Amino acid sequence: MKAFTYERPRSLQDAASSFAAKPSARLIGGGTNLLDLMKLEVETPGHLIDVNHLGLDKVTPTENGGLRIGASVRNSDLAADPQVRRHYGVLSRALLSGASGQLRNKATTAGNLLQRTRCNYFYDISKPCNKRTPGEGCSALQGYNRMNAILGTSEQCIAVHPSDMAVAMRVLDAQVETMSPRGKRVIPIADFHRLPGSTPQVETSLQQGEIITAVTLPPPLPGRHIYRKVRDRASYAFALVSVAAIVDADGGTIRSARFAFGGVAHKPWRVEGAESALAGARLGDPTARAVADQVLAGARGFGHNDFKIPLLRGSLAAVLAEA
């Protein structure tokens, strides 16, 4: 690990000013991902800004009946929050399926959204990686790509976003609140994470010096909240494929349904067009196949991860059977 300086600002405004003034700085909350990256010298910040102790650790109701989640709220606390458990079950289940209990006790809401990919070649600094060093090449394209993406890929990068929480946030249409010396901003989560394109090193729509302050959820949605995660072992493993779903059905007939998928793309994957025609459809395999056909349009395996295409189909069918 390379040497760095450390700062604990007294206010959010001080943190934002310092972050904007130091391009090599990184924010640290729980540090569950950043410290690993620093030990491996994937990340080499010259300065760390500690954003704990800034009062961003509260979960509060919003005026329109939704929920505002502070950026520093720990994953364990959020999963156990009574309002989240009662009204946003898909989020609570997604959080509890991620990492270990010890990690959830440290990991924060903002940090979870900003997790870097777990692609093996991103973490191995002896191997070319466009995400780590633009222009080097992508070792995963011809390498061992079992965990990599099948949707939204480019010739520059086939990494996936690893967060379970972000997939649930996507199906809930969360919004990300930020601040910087330029002011406050609200970013729909649909626009927050980016596809790799020709700049896979740019993973979010955050601007230089911008700090996440909170995530807001809309008023609760009716229906059954489901989070299904397929992984290599029962706990503490990243998703091969995950499905976040909210399905409102009556007597086997769907009133409304929405789905987001993890483990398959550079961002939580959602195809709203596949959901819009579901009102009045029957729960069951034909509906699952129709939705999967639209979600998987343009899907491409890279050898070791070809299995993710049928796995997504099967996972979606299992979710609709559970609903």
From TrEMBL:
Coiled coil: none annotated. PROSITE patterns: FAD_PCMH. SUPFAM superfamilies: CO dehydrogenase flavoprotein C-terminal domain-like, FAD-binding/transporter-associated domain-like. Keywords: FAD, Flavoprotein. It comes from the Bacteria. GO terms for molecular function: FAD binding; oxidoreductase activity. Residues 1-222 form the FAD-binding PCMH-type domain. The keyword Flavoprotein applies. The keyword Flavoprotein applies. This is Xanthine dehydrogenase. It comes from Rhodoferax koreensis.
